[in-house]
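Section 4.2 – Deliverable D4.2 (structural model, holo form)

The reporting period included a commitment to supply a predicted holo structure for the target in complex with S-adenosylmethionine. Inputs used:
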Amino acid sequence: MKNIVSDLSAPNRSEEQIKSRERVSAHGEVFTADREVEAMLDLVCRETERIDSRFLEPACGNGNFLVKILERKLTVVRHKYIKNRTDYELYACVAVSSIYGIDIQLDNVIECRDRLYEILAVEYITTFKEQFKEAYLLAIRHILSKNIIWGDSLTQQAPDGLAPIRFCEWSVVNDKIIRRDFLFEDLLQNQPFEGSNLFSDLGDEAFIPTPIAVYPPIHYLKLADYGAK
Ligand SMILES: C[S@@+](CC[C@H](N)C(=O)[O-])C[C@H]1O[C@@H](n2cnc3c(N)ncnc32)[C@H](O)[C@@H]1O
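Output (structure tokens):
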């Protein structure tokens, strides 16, 4: 349990806007302050409050935008589903699994995953206390390990250029999760950014990409088993 719940009282890392001058010049790394993040998210406020609305941050840094998006979605989950642990688990899982990020610097990727994990884990553990399921926290860790990607958004490859960036789509059906994988480059090739949407769930005309892998449905509490294979 120590490794799952470890260090959940980490400091608020959104306050530092710069890690070093070298990183600013090498990677343009200047993090956005909370106030600006909130103001920008307010422009798409309805989407940030829709639990299953998909967000991709292609230069996510240590997660300043993604953290706030998750907090907004979890406010809705909490409001609607806190009385039932299973419902809460499923909808919080939907909230996390619809958030995606890419960054070229590995430490940012790890920090971003940890911050998103901590937000959910702290709320889940303090709310459900001894009822909380370790398997659930492992499932959330697994999703974050896939959704927050170490890669180069410009080349759509891993930083060493040896593997294409691959996105996982997670769909919840009853208490099961279906995973389908897509290549970032395939998604972008058919994304003119005007007139059509990727994975549109608002009824718009949408490009339907072909997955490169489809996994059998699995109970959400067993999701981390994928990672073990
Ligand atoms: C200006 S910071 C913004 C970070 C975050 N979006 C925020 O607003 O706090 C830019 C980030 O982009 C990352 N980055 C730079 N080039 C990139 C690339 N080709 N692919 C992915 N990430 C990249 C840097 O590592 C850095 O974390």
